[in-house]
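Section 3.1: Structural characterization of target chains.
Under the original work plan, the team committed to producing a structural model for every single-chain target entering the pipeline before any wet-lab resources were allocated. The record below documents one such target. The sequence was received from the expression subgroup and is listed exactly as submitted; it comprises 440 residues.
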Amino acid sequence: MSTTLDATHDPSLRSWLASANEDTSEFPIQNLPIGMFNRRGGAGPFRPGVAIGDQIVDLLAACDARALPADVADTLGRCQPGELNAFMASGREARVALRRALSLGLSTGSAMQSKLEACLVAQADAEYAVPCRIGDYTDFYTGIHHATTVGKLFRPDNPLLPNYKWVPIGYHGRASSIGVSGQTVRRPIGQLKGTADAPHLGASQRLDYELEVGAFIATPNALGTRVSMAEAEDHVFGLVLFNDWSARDIQAWEYQPLGPFLSKNFASTISPWIVTLEALQPFRSAWTRDASDPQPLPYLDSPSNRTRGAFDVVLEAWLQTAAMREGGVPAVRLTQSNFTDAYWTVAQMVAHHTVGGCNLQAGDLLGSGTLSGPDPAQGGSMLELSLGGKQPLTLPNGETRSFLEDGDTLVIRGRCERAGFRRIGFGECSASVLPAVDWG
């Protein structure tokens, strides 16, 4: 696990791009997240870029302008059009080289200023794509407060199943339906079971969001090998915000005995920028396990994980209904939690995922599971906030919500802030709900 802080984290570092120096910017020079973009309405494949202030550095243009070192340009040049997988697979050294080159080139007084200025594209003029080819997606269940609250709704006397505190629980999800922020999500259809003896086919009436963090895999491991805790973060590229949309009524009928299927496979949304592990180093936190809880088995434990295994990321979910949008009413915050509330860390997810020999690939995505806080008001889903629909939320304009309705826009935001370092952000992870298609 790398714990290196260097000149790229210096809070006094400033860019020649004025917008990057604003206190409210999510993308100061200390961040430099990576994504895939195109000029809005532009032709051709999406291009790799790095966010800085309110602009994007077009990395291919920077390579052509010789504004990046030859080794960095060579690594970026191996990527297939529209995806970052080859760069991700190159590992930490390639990320660090790009980060340091851009930090120097974007700093005040840099000799590369004129070359990089010509490579800038305004974020307002860009559209985004999923940053890589996601071969596989696994969603974990690391949010213990979410698991406890939801468990109480169904099993008041035994909310957590016996294995929860021993094993990082997860399920294999659908990679093909993962989209990027700004997408629309069609209300799903599936079997619903009410009070009648037989289920019926219909549109979900209990559409929900899940406030999550996603971790993208960088270097792969070979089939039949395992990744140790000491090596786990070397296989992680960075983090994104993640909304794993859920149809709770479909889920309740189908999930036993094998788990979610149609209730989860219709859509998931990620933020467009991957915040690299290097940018997150100043915001590491100790990972603790209550002494009264089972301690992790040796393959899920390490000294570095206990001292710096967690990521201090403040997470928020915001809602704007169609009526609010039409009336010019801004989105309202539904909840706030923190990634440090997760019961298991990113390293533990990687180590457990591979302990049986599973071969993770560059671009694979691991979801954290819903990240709720310990307070009831910190629920990371409508299911929790409304107590299964029994206590609808009243919004500032008088509307109520137990679950999401057509026209609603759900936005997830995340930020890292700590005394002595520049605040960094993830950008928005947003999507709007469309009505179900006519299912006849």
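The domain at 137-434 is CATH 3.90.850.10 (Fumarylacetoacetate hydrolase; domain 2).
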